[in-house]
Amino acid sequence: MSEDSYAKKRRQIANSLCTLLGLSIIASLLVGQIAIAGTATYDPLAVSPRLKPDTVDFAVRDIRRRRDIPVRMYVLPTASRAPIVLFSHGLGGSRQGSSYLGEHWASRGYAAIFLQHPGSDETIWKGTPAGERPDALRRAATAQNFLLRVQDVAAVLDELSDRRKIGQQVPIGRLDLGKVGMSGHSFGAITAQWLSGQTTENGKPRHTDPRISAALIMSPSSPRRGTPERAFASVSRPWMLMTGTKDLARIGRVKLKSRLAVFPALAPLNKYELVLFGAHHFAFTDGVLDERLEPRNPNHHRAILALSTAFWDTHLQGDPHAKEWLQGDGPSSFLESRDRWQTR
Asked: How confident is the model at residue 7 (pLDDT cuts 50, 70, 90)?
């Protein structure tokens, strides 16, 4: 081969290598762009404007306890095998409260089931003079009412499992009883904590319901007896905690220190905590805030909806895009600079 031919051949090989290398780089970039696009297209607030959830009110009769439990269900009319998200209201609340959560979760394909707990619901203060309401609420914040609450949740799950229809309106076939999440605020948060893994001061589970797969806990609190480490170190289910820097409760005198002690005591893996800057105790509800407090920050509900939805999508639906969003940079796009978000 002549020197010119040899040089020409070398140039051809070099050009081919460059072409192959260029194609490889382009392919890598495209794969990266596709991966980024997959995450970017996950939007926890996206809902269909054409589909509105049905609202179904009914009562579950617990024959053994001779107790009726009012329930409100939010569910899409087109739902098929919808995962279940239960919600337990705070002291003095009702099944109508926190509807912004129920409506959004249902719009995302869940059956959002909001319980009302007689004895610690709105009936304890309605019709009572304003000055006497705090005392009425304190009298209802008892261990007995707590036990009634955890039993209410079990009774509702039993009803969903055993009956072919709920209130003769919602066929059981529209619900996926193998995917159940538990959520609650304040007294409802305590209810959710025990049902999803909190243990006694001796480290024993007392009220854990094996049917519950994950829990969203708004305004959590540490136990009054024993340590947070003993109460929460054995929690194996995914937990998402939400609180605020001004999340104080008049009834029970729960301080922020108690709320913030829960997260570091949890066993690692699929644990999350959101601390909203400036959020008061009732920032997690849709009720009227105390007029003596600052106006509601509209971004708080937006962040609560986005992160809670991604949590359910990840741990009830098994959505890989939701998981990547939740455990990556997704939450930061919904938070303000002084909000705090951490995972473990």
From this structure: very low
